[in-house]
Fold these 2 entries.
Entry 1:
Amino acid sequence: MKKYDLIIIGGGPAGTPVAMEYAKLNPEKKVLLVDKNGELGGECLFEGCIPSKIMKEISQTSKSWEEIKNFKKEILQKRSKAAKENLPKNVELLKANATFFASHAIEIDNEIYEFEKCVIGVGSKPNIPNYAGNGVDKIWTNVDFFKNMQLPKTLSIIGTGAIAIEFTQILADLGVKINLFSRSNTILKKIDNDAKQLVLENLKKHPNINLIFEANIKEINFENQFEIIYTQNNQTKTIYCDKVLSAIGRSANISNLNLEKAEIKYDKHGIITNKHLQTSNPNVYANGDVVSGFPAFAHTAFYGAHIIAQNLFLNHNFFEIDFDKNSWVLFSNPNIATSGISELEANKRGLDIIIDKYNFNIDAKAQITHTDNGFLKFIVEKKSLKVIGVVIVHQEANQIAGEAALIVSNQMKLKDIISTIHPHPTLSESFSNLSKQMMGKWMMQKLKNPIIETLLEMERNI
Ligand SMILES: Cc1cc2nc3c(=O)[nH]c(=O)nc-3n(C[C@H](O)[C@H](O)[C@H](O)COP(=O)(O)OP(=O)(O)OC[C@H]3O[C@@H](n4cnc5c(N)ncnc54)[C@H](O)[C@@H]3O)c2cc1C
């Protein structure tokens, strides 16, 4: 029987950084990192964040599909090689499929590996729709797309979340004719209505995109090409295309882990953890897409990995997760970046907030770069003037999303942003411009109150 201080299952963003950080902090400890593909980077590197953003970058240039394929190969190889080379010496990387054997042990190829602590980071897999028809098992997911790297002439995409929208716009820019199927009459249901409006307009006016909304797919058949039979406005319709790509949500990879043997509880969304990402088995932690209710991003997995590594190092559950300060970017056209609580969520929680926007059409940098379509929006707690949410809609919102993340995560007030000197002309100036705009309105409102009351309130908030 082999024994390790820490065993990590999964070499993606949820697992690899725990191995790196923990092993560096504890050079005397033995760490085993098991990945079924024997590669580091997970879905993010091979079939997710990185290849999709490579395509996005290059779809805006005049590079050929061959050049895109070669560039993708080069970047993926470079990154996975570097990750392996950077593994500390006390980490052993094993290419294998791990399952649990007991509360302190996993099993790999009939061999038992005992651990003091274990971290599960096995990710999630794309859901496959269960329509009728002989074409369903030929439907592509993101995994098939990036494995094949073929550009079909016509592609039907099912889904209206982030993955579906990114694929639709990128591939349409690369010349693919897209049918985008939505069961509802809109897209991106978790995003504020005003923020998704510009993306929706761009989808509608793109010559290669055909939006098929309020459509109920009934059957998908395949014979030389795909045949999609669906109902819309009480009519049955049929469409033909070369390929179909499904992006209708994801499920945690828990079915083959034998979690019961280690007394690890789960629900239909994944492994259940507490705020320290500890499972019902106190020696086992879980991180990333495999965790129930966990925001499915690479950066949230990196964040979770740091919390687990630190708590394991301290041998005490000191740090805990807080996803109210999460940030993410939809790499659509224009980008939508969100930090903290959206307007939709704030209203759902009944929070007392004030909201205001800064339009990029008055912004110097946006005007210079011909990117003046879009806005910056703050969701501010009325009582404290603390910025609890930021939404940025702009072609390059990803470039300034980090500042939004810092503001929200550090619970900054309008006055903190105003007192920051932002360089001119940059898009980041929008943060101080919007703060001044909101503070100005707030002061004008307050000056209508008795002067003593106003002065006391200003002292608190300015
Ligand atoms: C198309 C697409 C675009 C995306 N774009 C972004 C983006 O721009 N930004 C962002 O932050 N996120 C993005 N994501 C999400 C991101 O890829 C995931 O949230 C992230 O990869 C989750 O990391 P993870 O480590 O939990 O899982 P994974 O990355 O899936 O890694 C899990 C690892 O576990 C291994 N494994 C699985 N089962 C076992 C087993 N039994 N034994 C051993 N090893 C096992 C797998 O081989 C894999 O390496 C995107 C996803 C997709 C699909």
Note: The longest strand covers residues 111-120.
Entry 2:
Amino acid sequence: MIAAVPEPSQVPSPPIRLACTVVLLRDGADGVETLLLRRTPAAVFMGGYYVFPGGALVDEDHDAARDHLVGVTPAQANARLALADGATAFWIAAVRETFEECGILLARDRDARAVSASRVSTLAADRAALNAGTQSFKAWLERHALRVDGGDLAYFDHWITPPKRPRRFDTRFFLARAPHDQHASPDGIETVDARWILPHEALSLADAGTMPVANATQFVLQRLAQASSVDAALAAARSLETIACNRPCVAQGGAGARTFVRGDAPYHEIHWCDPDESTQGTYDLVPGIVKRLDRHVSRLVAPNPGPMTGPGTNTYFVGDRELAVVDPGPSDDRHVAAILAHGAGRIRWVFCTHAHHDHSPAAAMIARATGAELIGMPPPRSSRHDQTFVPDRIVGDGETMNLGDVVLTALHTPGHAPNHVCFRLEATRMLFTGDHVMQGSTVVIAPPEGNMRDYLDSLERLLRIDVAIIAPGHGYLIGDAHDEVRKLIQHRRWREERVLDALLRHREADVEMLVDDVYPDLRAVLRAPAMQSLRAHLLKLVEDGKAIAVGDRYRIA
Ligand SMILES: [Zn+2]
């Protein structure tokens, strides 16, 4: 009988081992070069791939760090790697693995001098013993009076191997300048080729399929391709304040199984929905299909995709036995039917973040069908707001509402609309942001109801609130909530600077005259909303005393 091949979902992921990688650099005639090693094609893990030198930590690296590491204290190393303890071992492992795998020795002698090439060649015989594990690196350093200088290695990146691979590593990446007179040579066992190469050349070969590299290697090569010199690359690495962990995730969808890295739109949602890394989560935002996001929350995308709504409006179901619907969406019979079908007999409350026509018109329809209570803030009297949204209960800022098994807290966030409210689910610190923060595009601020200064104040407010993840009105869940909000604030300030620059150039101008200056390369469909946000910026500048309105025109104050 032939054993059944397990489905990918049944293959357990191996334990994750701590590891380090060393990106060696040198200044070449055509720019910064880096050293790539070709792994033996026979290797179980990434056979035939081109990799930077590196490998897993061993227990002894900790002992060696205690006695043979200078230039970085345990406290500094732990802070740099954001670890509670034991970070210095990565510096030792980095130097050990580099020597074992490619024969380049980054250690220094007793007088803090780099080891000369001629001396390294006399030590070459020891390499095989170190590789085989018959010689301890700590003892070897001792015997040759060598030490590792922490300043020779600049920590700059952090990657974890995706799930369901034969080996998984939690790898810290270091940059180091290669000693100018030492030569790289593969060990002939794990690595069969050593090659100095320009990062963009390696990327072209990787694209052409002749130099296979892992995700992480590709991203590191892209970053290296920007560096003008080894000094510049090292300085850039040392100037990084925080280094986020990149833990690629795998999910299923229309294009089959796909891997996502930090920076890809679905990355944080996949991690949130699939914390055990089953790889069976989904990445498509499909209207009409309810997706469970966690124990308390599911999401249904409305069938109203478009330039202003992205993949469609997100309708959320919140609760366990009894349900609240957050942002029921447009008055679309299919969507309303899908909400009623999913929430059959359980919908007790309908919350609206605001009353734009893509968010609230279904609210009255759901309330009529279920008797649910409508909750939110009343909209301004304007055709741009859905006048059918008449809340049964008007929420106050900071008000907490018990919904059977879960608790929601309201947060008044005017700016996009004066009645805009965000809701925080206390159990998981998920924040439903409606159109205050949306994924994939910036929010339109349309005066007179939209107000740029209120909007910026409301963004600042989110920075003072503990948020684990953002559930926006459009697009995927958004992680790194505070970083994302800071980026939005920065983006608006940058845009305001552009408006001031344009005003200086034009002396006096209306919105129509300014829009192409402030928003170059604008798609025609986004021209009208861009003009609204531009007017909001101008009105804020007038309020701030930086500009003066003269009829429909504006000039610098
Ligand atoms: Zn809106």
Note: The chain has four domains: 16-239, 248-284, 285-479, 489-556.
